[in-house]
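Reading group handout, session on sequence-to-structure problems. Before we discuss, look at one worked example. The prompt was deliberately terse, the way you'd type it at a terminal:

> structure WYL domain-containing protein

The input record follows.
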Amino acid sequence: MDDTLLRQAIRDRRVIEFRYHGEHRTVEPYRLGLDGGRLRLMGWQARKGWRSFYAHEMLDLELTERTFLDPREGYTRGDPRMDRILAEV
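And the output record:
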């Protein structure tokens, strides 16, 4: 997957929508990084809280017009579980 749309969503703080494991997801994207060489997104889902998603498993990714401002409770920059951070709120 090309990570351009995910980077743009993080930079502009825009909510994204996609299908993941057969379910529709609406997510505030906070961090994109590499985990074992795979792209992984960390984001906030309204009903499920903090979640991570592997980019290669995300389907039909779309940026919405909705934005988010302040980071959600529990968010801290950096993630030692990621080998390298590519974009971050």
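Points for discussion. First: The longest strand covers residues 23-35. Second: The chain has a mean pLDDT of 94.
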